[in-house]
Description:
By secondary structure, the protein is mainly alpha-helical.
Amino acid sequence: xxxxxxxxxxxxxxxxxxxxxxxxxxxxxxxxxxxxxxxxxxxxxxxxxxxxxxxxxxxxxxxxxxxxxxxxxxxxxxxxxxxxxxxxxxxxxxxxxxxxxxxxxxxxxxxxxxxxxxxxxxxxxxxxxxxxxxxxxxxxxxxxxxxxxxxxxxxxxxxxxxxxxxxxxxxxxxxxxxxxxxxxxxxxxxxxxxxxxxxxxxxxxxxxxxxxxxxxxxxxxxxxxxxxxxxxxxxxxxxxxxxxxxxxxxxxxxxxxxxxxxxxxxxxxxxxxxxxxxxxxxxxxx
Length: 286
């Protein structure tokens, strides 16, 4: 029993960089949650999202993702949709900042936020148009059979693929689930609700194409050696359905959460009001 459990916990491909970032984030959040009041639901969403990221990238599940198409699609769904959606829902920014030692905030965090590279990178990644294009673009690019082959044959491209899915997911969901009005929020409240409907459409089409395909679109998994023995097209069909249905479901949930934020802003009178046209009284003739 213990040996089986260790087999799943031990990473398929160990990464010091990932482990350092993951542990640092967990420590900062733990410290921050002890210094400020954080609801149980927010803590649960954050830790569940972090557990999903670790499970997807640093356990034996990564082996199956490299050797079976539908498991790979589950991994990408977790990294791109579910984990970022949960963590962004927890609004962890203030908690992470509270977890930093004061000297870190003064010497590292404040100068970093004021530096021009930080402003350029965040300005590009958090631009609504760029974030939306990257969110859907990375899904479609890595579904191209030739790109999938490159990712599976080169570990550097494989890791870039996973990180690109994770980062683009965080950038997109942080815009859609922003609880602030516009401005300072980068998206208008209405666009936050409509955006998931826009991004899910190409995914549904791509998932349907893969689902109903009668040819093996990803023979690279045959070359790498498949983890399971059932029919190739069956695994491809399952992978297509994962791209099609669960992705659309999660984006629908995101849209409903954005709608709730919109209603909350409206109820609290925090939505910007349109300037009222001045009434010009007609001058009366003498």
